[in-house]
Amino acid sequence: MNVQQSDTRLQNGATQVAPFLSVGGLSKRFGQSTVVDDVAFEVGRSEFVCVLGPSGCGKTTLLRLIAGFERADKGVIAMNGVDVTTRRPEERDFGIVFQSYALFPNRTVAGNVGFGLEATRASGAQQQARVAELLTLVGLTEHAGKYPSQLSGGQQQRVALARALALSPGLLLLDEPLSALDANVRARLRLELLALQRRVGVTALMVTHDQQEALAVADRIIVMNRGRIVQCGTPRQVFETPADLFVARFMGEMNAFPITGVDHDGVEAGPVRLTLAEASGSLPARAHLCIRPGAVLIGAEAEAAPRPLAARVRQVLYLGDTVRLTLQVCGHEAAPVNAEIPSARLPLLPSIGDAVAVAFPAGQVRILGDGA
User: Fold this and answer.
1) pLDDT score at 7
2) What's the confidence (pLDDT) of residue 183?
3) β pairing state of 10-11 and 272-275
4) What's the CA gap between 229 and 217, in Å, rounded?
5) 184-206 residue pLDDT tens
6) For the whole model, what pTM was predicted?
7) In Å, what is the CA distance from 303 to each residue of 255, 299, 316, 318, 361?
8) Nearest alpha carbon to residue 9 among 49, 44, 51, 41
9) How far is CA 319 from CA 42, 183, 296, 322, 342, in A?
10) How far is Cα 359 from Cα 154, in angstroms, rounded to an integer?
11) Is the distance from CB of 256 to CB of 368 less than 8 angstroms?
12) Which one of 31, 210, 307, 319 is separated from 339 by 20 to 30 angstroms, measured CA to CA?
């Protein structure tokens, strides 16, 4: 499902189809610390939802509550319309993939994939057929007789996925499944994971701290901070219209300038200014004017835009496809501006000390509270 399709199916972070997973008022304390605080959301059938947040925000505890590995202090968990809040993990309809894969080192690939099938009434032939089907699905047929130690990290992750899907669960839970892999393998496997989920049609809930991972695979993203949900929406909604500065910065770099002046002409914050028409609506507490580095205009593009300003280049980072610039706007030396420009639009790299024009398109500037 692409972003446009997701937007028509989802409104205000709530699914329009019957949910497979419903979580209501879920809370969990450890001692004096509330780790999950009144969390509520739904995941529709065949939907892929990512729970995103920094370390310690409660996302892994939330996953463990849903799986039944931890008991909630308050709240309700329902799967396929059935209240499973107090049921044991084996009585819940899910498969799970852990960050560490948790494969059995003394079992072959086929033995790992077929482990859960051994407790069913399926015949030996049926179990073998199911294992063969899953190994084909994850592209590991030729490795069926190998042991985990003989596989790469990416291959071990595929074995863990196949094992989790062996019993055809209604819900697939993924606990940072790609974090142990290097960047190139992780980028490839997240696309394979998405393709596999689409092919199987399983409902998926993945916990991750990787923003790019969530943006790449999720139908919806749930952002958590300090045990609470702070925003829920499609990847595009969360990235382009963040609820506050915490969400904005967690989803990627953001220039943020505390608002220092509001008058009949407009709103001002550091080098950025909006007219009253552009800044329609009430200001949140501790408000900032914010713009992504990729939306900042420089050079000829800035000169053609409204309200260009003079600046000097203070840092240049060439990153291949893009160039990251740190700019110092004249008269606003205490508020450096980061800009990200596609390399193709910069036939000549600026040098430190160069004078350039800079502009902040009003349509790209957001007024955000700090989220504290």
Assistant:
1) 36
2) 79
3) unpaired
4) 19
5) 888 888 888 898 999 999 999 99
6) 0.87
7) 20, 6, 20, 23, 12
8) 44
9) 39, 16, 17, 5, 10
10) 44
11) yes
12) 210
